[in-house]
Amino acid sequence: MADIIGGIATSHTPTIGFAVDAKKQDDPVWKPIFEGYVPVQDWLEEKKPDVIFYIYNDHMTSFFADHYSHFALGVGDTFHPADEGGGPRDIAPIEGHPALAQHIAEAMVAQEFDLSYFQNKGLDHGAFSPMSLLVKLEEHDGWPMKLVPLQVGVLQPPTPTPLRCYKFGKALRRAIQSYPEDLKVVIAGTGGLSHQVHGERAGFNDPEWDAEFMDRLVNDPESLTEITIAEYARKGGWEGAEVVMWLLMRGAMAPKVKLLHQAYYLPSMCPIATMLMEDDVEDRPEAEIESLRRRKDEQLEGAEQLEGTYPFTIETAVRAFRLNNFLHELVKPEKRKIFVEDEERAFEEAGLTEEERVLVRNRDWQGLIHYGVIFFMLEKLGAVVDVPNPHIYAAMRGESIEDFQKTRNAAITYSVAGTDKQQA
Ligand SMILES: [Fe+2]
Predict the structure, then answer these.
(1) Tens-digit pLDDT profile for residues 135-194
(2) How far is the CA of 235 from the centre of ligand 1 (A)?
(3) How far apart (Å, rounded) are the C-alpha atoms in residues 400 and 423?
(4) Are strands 2-10 and 146-152 parallel, antiparallel or unpaired?
(5) Which pLDDT does position 97 carry in this prediction?
(6) Which of 185, 191, 184 is nearest to 151 (CA)?
(7) Interstrand relation of 71-74 and 78-79 (parallel, antiparallel or unpaired)
(8) DSSP code of 354?
(9) Do residues 77 and 174 touch, judged by C-beta distance below 8 A?
(10) H-only helix segments in 48-161
(11) What's the alpha-carbon Rg for the chain, to the nearest Å?
(12) Distance between Cα 12 and ligand 1 center (Å)
């Protein structure tokens, strides 16, 4: 059974990643940054968690204003560092844990927290900057744990309230505890502390408020849920209000915790702070956890018995991502052009396996569904290769178009193809 073995809070300023990449550990100005992380590194080396559940916010790198969401759970099998303008950092990608992520998603939805799910998106400094100092990377061949990221949309109001974040943490605790396999999970909340990086107020800090916040986070976290976002911004700077993500981590810990380590250093714009805590009371109500385990499956119970029906689950979306993504890319005129002119080149550029190429080459509509392609990619492919929707329905049923049309009230035909076909 999965257990939460500890909680980490850390700033996620780009300074941390820069210090690591520029090897500043012996520079007296930079040294305190490294020292603040040593007790956390030692603790992680000793406890050896299997997974770090990592709460962060992206900085309009992979999550932009074209689609901004509150709680986005990373369900992918690998996460790469993002390119934030000057190329990605030279650090290894980290493995995700799709099975745990799917379980958490189901258990959160059962507790009325609806999430969005992401994969194949780079993680920016909000994630990889502190990650590269939390772990003694030089002592490992790659990352010694897997990572499940949670991206919290704290940049575009209305953002999740502090109370919502705290309650999310509490629900997350039960979601993780209800995972049936033995897993040691550590929760990391990142961001803050007091800082502002935009406008005339850029450079704002308040170390006294930061100290009070850290104390209340340990001893009286519920009082921190009563503060509004504007009040957090007044006390700790507009961007400092991202500290609600620490509250999310704290919600996932037991009501009482013991603080094992705390450090604070303010070299420039943003304090570099770390905290490490463990539960100080038992908080694992087995009956409640068992009830959640049942509720999380309730909505889909019986779906597996529906003949000819293939739900596009997180597991499917991760396993068949390459092929679904290839077909989804057909919504872009430049990708479509390559496919229409030279399918084999398009397959090659997308790195499709031979099995995947055969399915597309043969317009094997039923085979594509069985493989894990969602129907709406089929109708996109149909639009490109001039196969109307009813022909695809007939093929999936294993019928001729004529026989299929006999089952309809009207023998009509249509597709989602737009202006390309009108111009042809
Ligand atoms: Fe941030």
Answers:
(1) 998 899 999 999 999 999 999 999 999 999 999 999 999 999 999 999 999 999 999 899
(2) 16
(3) 29
(4) unpaired
(5) 98
(6) 191
(7) unpaired
(8) H
(9) no
(10) 98-110, 125-134
(11) 25
(12) 6
Q: What's the pLDDT tens digit per position in 30-85? A: 888 899 999 999 999 999 999 999 999 999 999 999 999 999 999 999 999 999 99
Band of pLDDT at residue 422, cut at 50, 70 and 90 = low
Going from the Cα of 88 to the center of ligand 1, the distance in angstroms, rounded, reads 17
Under DSSP, is residue 363 helix (H, G, I), strand (E, B) or coil? coil
pLDDT, tens only, 273-314: 999 999 999 999 999 999 999 999 999 999 999 999 999 999
Q: How far is the CA of 141 from the centre of ligand 1 (A)?
A: 28
Distance from CA of residue 302 to its chain's centroid?
Answer: 29
Catalytic residue among 195, 198, 261, 328: 195
Query: pTM of the predicted model, to two decimals?
Result: 0.95
Domains and CATH numbers, the chain: 2-298 (3.40.830.10), 311-417 (1.10.700.10)
SS3 of residue 171 by DSSP: helix
CA 239 to centroid of ligand 1, rounded, Å: 7
Contact 360, 384 (CB under 8 A): no
**What separation in Å is there between the alpha carbon of 154 and the centre of ligand 1?**
8
Q: Are 55 and 190 in contact (CB under 8 A)?
A: yes
Active site residue 59: no
Could you say which of 125, 140, 261, 370 is catalytic? 125
Question: CA 408, 413, 415 angle in degrees (round to 5)?
Answer: 125
Does residue 12 carry a catalytic annotation? Answer: no
Is there a contact between 366 and 396 (Cβ–Cβ < 8 Å)?
yes
CA distance 76 to 118: 7
Residue 421 has pLDDT above 70, yes or no: no
Mean pLDDT over each residue of the chain, to the nearest integer: 95
The residues with which 286 forms a beta bridge, in sequence order, are: none
The angle, 0 to 180 degrees and rounded to 10, between the axes of the packed helices 354-361 and 343-350 is 150
In the block, residue with structure tokens 């934030």: 84
Structure tokens at 295: 């509720």
